[in-house]
Design a protein that fits this description.
alpha+beta; two-stranded antiparallel sheet; 4 helices; 22% strand
Length: 113
């Protein structure tokens, strides 16, 4: 992901022009979006262990089809085969270890005001 999304840095504030889907896992971003409309915001983080990939190249295929930032990244770098290969490699190496991919998720619940 770093290859295509290298303009996105870990900061405490939102970056101008950053795709919104990158921020849906951030409590501060979601709270800012809904704060005027809800109260009693509660968050819970969890992780999911996915062992469905029989080969590392299946991991980038999955991300291309189902993960918002990757869905957007591939068309943006599609003509640059070197960057596509780099992104594929990074997705495989970062998210696919010993046949297993660890995913973190965020559940946010709130009451409407």
């Amino acid at each position: 992901m770093r290859a295509s999304l290298d303009s996105v840095a870990e900061t405490s504030s939102l970056l101008q022009g950053t795709p919104q889907e990158l921020w849906w896992g951030r409590e501060d971003f979601i709270s800012e979006l809904v704060n005027d409309h809800v109260c009693d915001i509660r968050v819970q983080r969890g992780s999911l262990r996915a062992d469905r990939f029989d080969h590392p190249y299946r991991c980038p295929e999955y991300f291309q089809e189902y993960y918002g930032p990757a869905i957007n990244a591939y068309p943006n770098i599609g003509a640059d085969t070197e960057r596509v290969a780099e992104l594929d490699s990074e997705l495989s190496c970062e998210y696919f270890t010993d046949g297993v991919m660890e995913c973190e998720y965020l559940i946010l619940t709130a009451r409407k005001r």
